[in-house]
Amino acid sequence: MATPCSSFEVTSTLGAARTGTLTLTHGQxxxxxxxxxxxxxxxxxxxxxxxxxKGAGADIILSNTYHLWERPGHELxxxxxxxxxxxxxxxxxLTDSGGYQVFSMRDRIxxxxxxxxxxxxxxxxxxxxxxxxxxxxxxxLGVDVAMAFDECLEHPATRERAKHSTDRTTRWLxxxxxxxxxxxxxxxxxxxxxxMYEDMRIAHAQEIAELDLDGYAIGGLSVxxxxxxxxxxxxxxxxxxxxxKVRYLMGVGQPIDIVEAVIRGVDMFDCVLxxxxxxxxxxxxxxxxxxxxxxxxxxxxxxLDPELPNSPANRYSRAYxxxxxxxxxxxxxxxxxxHNLYFYQELMRQLxxxxxxxxxxxxQDLRRRARQASGPAPAGS
Amino acid sequence: MATPCSSFEVTSTLGAARTGTLTLTHGQxxxxxxxxxxxxxxxxxxxxxxxxxKGAGADIILSNTYHLWERPGHELxxxxxxxxxxxxxxxxxLTDSGGYQVFSMRDRIxxxxxxxxxxxxxxxxxxxxxxxxxxxxxxxLGVDVAMAFDECLEHPATRERAKHSTDRTTRWLxxxxxxxxxxxxxxxxxxxxxxMYEDMRIAHAQEIAELDLDGYAIGGLSVxxxxxxxxxxxxxxxxxxxxxKVRYLMGVGQPIDIVEAVIRGVDMFDCVLxxxxxxxxxxxxxxxxxxxxxxxxxxxxxxLDPELPNSPANRYSRAYxxxxxxxxxxxxxxxxxxHNLYFYQELMRQLxxxxxxxxxxxxQDLRRRARQASGPAPAGS
Lengths: 381, 381
Hints:
2 copies of one chain form a homodimer.
Chain A: E1 7-14, E2 17-24, E3 27-31, E4 33-37, H1 48-51, E5 61-63, H2 65-70, H3 74-79, H4 83-87, E6 93-95, H5 99-103, E7 109-111, E8 116-119, E9 126-129, H6 131-141, E10 145-147, H7 159-179, E11 187-192, H8 198-209, E12 215-218, H9 227-237, E13 246-249, H10 255-263, E14 268-270, H11 273-279, E15 282-285, E16 288-291, H12 318-326, H13 330-357, H14 360-374
Parallel strand pairs in A: 4-5, 4-14, 5-6, 6-10, 10-11, 11-12, 12-13, 13-14
Antiparallel strand pairs in A: 1-2, 2-3, 7-8, 8-9, 15-16
């Protein structure tokens, strides 16, 4: 049953797109929302206050259960007052279940009905991750939203494999629900699976909708299936997810993926793209993605993105930012990452504003601009 | 002859210690001053505004001629409006001459009366650095203070070697003076050499004092000679440097080195220690140096230094900062570096205040505290 620590209210719709407010233990999240990823309880050289309302404008961040469990350990974080206190972010935090990281070890794990057995890459210890432990870790971290522990299906997968895996995910979801000790402060989201089979996704969405969770995610996408197939799956699934609950598309994506999914009724996103791309010298701008390492910027004294005037990276020229990457200065990674976080939050702000105003033309215009932002910036721009 | 772009006024003295104001093209520097090192025109993940008056409180930064000459090239920086514009620091900048880096290549260089020939470690090109080129590079960068190109003597060195080298340094200094094209905006400081020979240092200080430069540095120290010998050289030299000109001890040092040198009449310092130590997880605190990687801090919820309340690193616990280093998160390097910059600027602020107030007892107390800060922090502190 949905728990009192979480509530969601849709305030406006535009077609299937919605804007609303998700209320959690540590505050409110305006949706559509993009969760900045702080994998290890830190955001790649960026301080929490630079991510939040006085910085890029994020309401919520995502952190990774698996990494924090391995190091420094959830018990230690719990003893020090929880993840919020530990990392100095006082707004809402959602954690993944740890399943994605564990299943990524593919050949080195043993997945059974009980859970997943693997050897820690950190120290070689034999470890078990189960639905019960995934909930325990997340509740000990004291996060606002725990994700259910699900089986991460390989892609491509046969219909039979997908069915078997999706059924197990449902059984694990029920075990997660039963394992909760702190439903007063940590919400639980279920995850719709079903591989790339529309009917199976619909059936799974309907099945877990019955369980009345705090929110629902779409998992198992952005695994190499491509934009069109991903959108087909989202479009098939969202109408069968509860309209009154928040909908979260996990691990997505490029600006255009986000806009297309919002148009299909998704409310929340997370993706490593803005931080990972930034570390490697790629920045998102409204003119397109820019690889700061290329010679084209060597003497370009313009700011990164004149259409994103509040970006902290705009304190410097493209020429200087390029130079920082060429010479390996940490400041390059930091400024590019910060810029991308501002870009993504600006995209979400515009989506929320357009949906609230009910302006279909503006939405189509933003769709076009997001497509532009997701490809390479043309020469001369 | 001293140039109009630079002036120095001593406002108070306490024994041989002085406090004063150095006025340069891009602003004033309150002395004693510590110059944060931005080797490559960037300060290791720290933005210029975090170093300056709204941040750690530095009035002036130091950048490295050799590195900027190699990449991106002084001509490029000149075309883009100069180093201030390029890196976004609008206060005074001093550059070294490039000699230190070139002479560090030891076996791979050929030093003649003309200058130094070497192969670029970056691209293998055969290059020459001469007094004339060192001045040209620094003037093209548009810095406030250019350092004369001097010969960097090995340590230890025979008396004969030291004399030969010091005489060449004087000849090169005169060539630097003759090569100036922008004395209206870039000041020139000469460098006292003389190895570890007191009489030679005195003679050289007296000789170049005659040349009426904008400021005078003590070079060739902090090369492995140890604190006591370094202080003996400083103590011998400063009385023979012009009292009305600013005195700069190059590449120094630990907090205690700085306080001892100020007591002997030095006004300016630069050192990579706060940035380099920070990158490697060592922070300066009034209780002593702390290696953030050690287990002692794993569950230490205290702030880094309760006696340095304005340090940005004090937003986080020692336990979290340790965790950031253990897990390789960029934010650890950034916060430790930032903390050290705040620590060094706070040390200088206290020195200026104590000298201005003429409080000998406070100066002795700070000397004791700086000694404490330069050693390891005791357990439990």
